[in-house]
Write a structure and sequence with these properties.
alpha+beta; Butyryl-CoA Dehydrogenase, subunit A, domain 3; six-stranded mixed sheet; four-stranded mixed sheet
């Protein structure tokens, strides 16, 4: 089948999915005043395949067949670098908000290929064939695919099988000749309100007794018993002048509920094999943190660019502390970008021949981004000034009575139109001081794994043996 157009993508979402927003059933996500913005934002991925600026990057030509590069199985460093470049480009088109409707789903598909290959080598070949067929189905139909991984968890001090409510982790409640029945809920499910398919993965390693919770599968979003409750955070109508990013771009998160949902066997990728739950969760994260850092790069680029523009508009280029802050912002952006590029170049190949980005460098890159983000926001706000949260509104600027006064008194450096300064202030405000700014700050802490998870993985991946041998040799110590 050919690649979907943006119009075909939007039309394909007009189905009977069970989706709620602020307590009301959403009958058509494409026309909803808030959720429809997320649909338009997601259509960027489909539009880029038709855009001559990006077609070479967004589309893979395989003989007479064309398909989205997101579905290209990475086998080399070059494949990973192009994937990272595409993710960054689409996020840049999305004004620093990741599109994610194909990025995250293919991260999961790559992980499923690797784990299913390992399972086949240990006498479970049926999963490998199911993964292959499902991957081809998504690729050939150019589908948008979300991932639900994080369980609601309940009591964080207890494992899945010890929870007071057994449904606080998604679990198998029945096995039938034609499939399984699952129950439970996942949180932080990004973009599923406007995708075609949903892949469900384990959130953690499992142990004996957790077999019912060791489950992975895929479903069409419009499946009976699957209910989506959309988060209202960042919702509501916004003026594009005051909110140049969040008025036009939105990504919806949901509480995703499985109320005795039937999954046919051909869409089941893990069903009680507890020893593979951890490897599957971890392999997905290895790809998804690479995706995460790739889509953070335009965000860091905009922090640098907007800060530098505000410095010019405010006329403070000559101050030493200003140059120092700009240097730190530039170094922050450059170092994270270099780390993720090097992670692609230092990849390793896993059966069945897929390239995995260097896990150590990916986690270092993600930790560098996350641990420094709030400090970077503080520097940008400092350089921009308090008008980020005290400036008059767009109505005041457009009013005959107040407009001339606003332009007169809120001008900056000579030669800079006051409206340009106000527009840049609004951009920085939306980026750092609005609900969108708060969203990005929380994502920096929690998305794609916490700071502690990234530190733990870095500790596990770093080989201390060589440095220790070197230190002992110089100290004259022989073991």
């Amino acid at each position: 089948m050919p690649l979907k157009t943006p119009a075909e993508y939007k039309q394909s979402l007009q189905d009977d999915r069970t989706l709620y927003y602020r307590g009301e059933r959403v009958l058509d996500v494409t026309t909803h005043p808030t959720l429809g913005i997320a649909v338009e934002h997601a259509a960027i991925d489909y539009a880029m395949a038709e855009d001559q600026r990006y077609r070479h990057l967004a589309v893979v030509q395989d003989g007479a067949r064309e398909y989205s590069r997101y579905y290209h199985l990475p086998r080399t460093s070059e494949d990973l670098l192009k994937r990272s470049e595409l993710i960054a480009a689409s996020t840049r088109e999305g004004a620093t908000l990741v599109v994610l409707i194909k990025e995250i789903g293919t991260d999961a598909l790559f992980a499923l290929h690797i784990v299913a290959e390992a399972m086949a080598a240990r006498g479970l070949p049926q999963y490998r064939e199911r993964v292959r067929l499902y991957y081809e189905h998504c690729r050939e139909h150019d589908l948008a695919v979300a991932v639900a991984q994080t369980d609601v968890k309940g009591d964080r001090g207890l494992g899945p099988a010890q929870q007071p409510d057994p449904d606080h982790y998604v679990r198998i409640v029945d096995r039938r000749a034609d499939g399984i029945v699952v129950r439970g809920a996942k949180v932080h499910t990004s973009v599923v309100s406007n995708t075609h398919e949903l892949i469900v993965l384990p959130t953690r390693a499992m142990r004996a007794g957790d077999e019912a919770y060791a489950v992975a599968f895929a479903l069409p979003v419009a499946t009976k018993g699957l209910t989506l409750v959309a988060s209202p955070y960042g919702g509501g109508k916004k003026d594009p002048f005051e909110h140049p990013i969040s008025a036009r771009h939105k990504m919806i998160e949901t509480l995703t509920i499985f109320d005795d949902v039937f999954v046919p066997w051909e869409r089941v990728f893990l069903a009680g094999e507890a020893e593979y739950a951890g490897p599957l969760a971890l392999t997905f994260v290895k790809y998804h943190r690479f995706t995460a850092v790739s889509y953070k790069l335009p965000l860091l680029e905009l922090l640098v660019g907007s800060a530098r523009a505000m410095v010019e508009y405010n006329g403070i280029e000559g101050a030493g502390h200003v140059r120092e802050k700009l240097t730190r912002l530039a170094s922050y952006h450059a170092s994270v970008e270099a780390l993720i590029q090097h992670a692609a170049m230092q990849c390793r190949i896993e059966p069945p021949g897929l390239a995995i980005p260097n896990t150590l460098l990916t986690n270092v890159a993600k930790y560098q981004f996350a641990s420094q983000y709030h400090g970077a926001v503080q520097m940008v706000q400092d350089l921009a000034g308090g008008l980020l949260v005290t400036a008059p509104g767009v109505e005041d600027l457009r009013s005959e009575a107040t407009g001339p006064l606003v332009l007169k008194y809120l001008g900056g450096k000579a030669g800079v139109p006051a409206e340009h300064r106000l527009r840049m202030l609004n951009l920085v405000s939306d980026l750092t001081a609005s609900d969108y700014g708060g969203y990005q700050e929380v994502l920096a802490v929690h998305a794609e794994g916490s700071l502690e998870a990234e530190k733990l993985q870095t500790y596990r991946e770093y080989d201390f043996s060589g440095p220790v041998r070197y230190a002992k040799r110089l100290a004259g110590v022989q073991d």
